[in-house]
Design goal:
Radius of gyration: 19 Å
Number of strands: 8
Bound molecules: 1,4-dihydronicotinamide adenine dinucleotide
Shape: globular
Order of helices and strands: EHEHHEEHEHEEHEHHHHH
Strand content: 5-15%
CATH superfamily of the largest domain: NAD(P)-binding Rossmann-like Domain
Distance between the termini: 42 Å
Number of domains: 2
Helix content: 40-55%
Largest sheet: 8 strands, mixed
CATH architecture of the largest domain: 3-Layer(aba) Sandwich
Strand order of the largest sheet: 3-2-1-4-5-6-7-8
Structural class: alpha/beta
C-alpha cells in the first residue's frame, strides 16, 4: 500500500496510540485535538516513544528526520484537508461526536474514508451526521493501540464494500488483526468486558475483597494477564462510565455503572491517565 495521509482527531490516549500505529507503518499523520495542551503532549509522547524504539534498535536513527516529516500537528480541523483516511478518537459523547462530523465532511474530499473509534455508541447513529455515509464505518482499537493486535471493524447498513476493504487492508498492512462485526451495543469485546469490570468494581464497593485481591483472583484463577480493575484504570474510569452508560441505555440496567466508579470519576480519579484510580501510578 502506498503512503497515505491519515487524519487522527483526538490526541488523547487512543488517538496517540492509533497515530503511533500508522506513523510506524510509514504513513503521514495529521493529528488534531480541540485542546492544544493535549496536542502538544501527544507530539512529545510520540517522539519519546520513537526515541525509545531507536534506543532499543527497533527503529533506525537514520529515519528520524523522515519520521518527523510525517507527523503533522494540526491546530485546526481544516488541516485534515488532504487526508485519505480519518479516524475520530475524541471523547465518548454522542453530542460532541455528532457536532464534529458535519464540520469534518466540509473539510475532507468525498472519497476520504471516515472511521470512528467509538467504544459503545452505535455506528449507525453516528452515520447520520456524515456527508456521504457510505464511506463511514467503525474501527475500534484497543488500549494501548500500538500493542493490542485486535481492531473491530464495524460497517453500518450503508457502508460500501470499498470503505470496508480499504479499512481492512490499511489495518492488516499496519500489523493489526481486524475482525468484522455487526453494529450492536459494545460490539464484541466491550459487551463482554465492561460488565465484568463493573462487577469487579461492585465487589470492591461491597467490601468483598480488596482491589488487589480481586485482580489477583482473576489472574491466578482465570489466567487473565491483568486484573479487571487494573484494566479499568488503563481504559480510563471516565471512559468506562461513558461506555457503561451507553450500554445501559441500549441494553439494560445490568450495565449501570457502580457507584464507586461514578465517585472516582467525580473526584478526578480516572486511572492511569490521572495517576490514581483503583491503584496508584506514581
Ligand atoms: P481521552 O480522554 O484520553 O482523549 C479524548 C481527546 O478528545 C481529548 O484529548 C480531548 O481534548 C479530545 N476532544 C474532545 N472533544 C473534541 C473535539 N470536539 N474535537 C477534537 N478533539 C476533541 O479519551 P480516549 O481514551 O483516547 O478515548 C477516545 C475515544 O476512543 C472514545 O470514543 C473512547 O470510547 C474510544 N476508545 C477508548 C479506549 C480506551 O481504552 N480508553 C479503547 C477503545 C476506544
Amino acid at each position: 500500500m502506498t503512503t497515505q495521509h491519515i487524519g487522527i482527531i483526538g490526541a488523547g490516549q487512543m488517538g496517540q496510540g492509533i497515530a503511533d500505529v500508522f506513523w510506524r507503518a510509514g504513513h503521514t499523520i495529521y493529528l488534531f485535538d480541540a485542546d492544544p495542551i493535549r496536542l502538544d503532549q501527544a507530539y512529545q509522547n510520540l517522539n519519546e516513544r520513537l526515541e525509545r524504539a531507536i534506543d532499543k534498535g527497533t527503529e533506525s536513527a537514520d529515519e528520524w528526520e523522515h519520521f518527523l516529516g510525517r507527523l503533522v500537528v494540526c491546530i485546526r480541523l481544516s488541516g485534515m484537508a488532504s487526508c485519505t483516511f480519518v479516524i475520530e478518537a475524541i471523547v465518548e459523547d454522542i453530542d460532541v461526536k455528532s457536532k464534529l462530523f458535519p464540520d469534518l465532511g466540509n473539510v475532507v474530499d468525498a472519497s476520504c474514508i471516515i472511521a470512528t473509534n467509538t467504544s459503545s455508541l452505535l455506528v449507525t447513529e453516528l452515520a447520520v451526521h456524515i456527508k456521504n455515509p457510505e464511506r463511514f464505518l467503525g474501527v475500534h482499537f484497543f488500549n494501548p493501540a500500538y500493542r493490542m493486535p485486535l481492531v473491530e471493524i464495524i460497517p453500518h447498513a450503508q457502508t460500501s464494500a470499498i470503505a470496508s476493504d480499504r479499512a481492512h487492508a490499511l489495518l492488516t498492512e499496519a500489523g493489526k488483526t481486524p475482525i468484522v462485526c455487526t453494529d450492536s451495543p459494545g460490539f464484541i469485546v466491550n459487551r463482554l468486558l465492561l460488565p465484568m469490570i463493573n462487577q469487579a468494581a461492585l465487589l470492591h464497593q461491597n467490601g468483598v475483597a480488596t482491589a488487589a485481591d480481586i485482580d489477583s483472583s482473576m489472574k491466578l484463577g482465570a489466567n487473565f494477564p491483568m486484573g479487571p480493575l487494573a484494566l479499568a484504570d488503563l481504559i480510563g474510569l471516565d471512559t468506562c462510565v461513558l461506555i457503561l452508560n451507553s450500554l445501559a441505555k441500549a441494553c439494560c440496567d445490568t450495565y449501570k455503572p457502580a457507584d464507586i466508579l461514578l465517585n472516582y470519576v467525580k473526584d478526578g480519579k480516572l486511572g492511569v491517565k490521572s495517576k490514581e484510580g483503583f491503584f496508584n501510578y506514581p
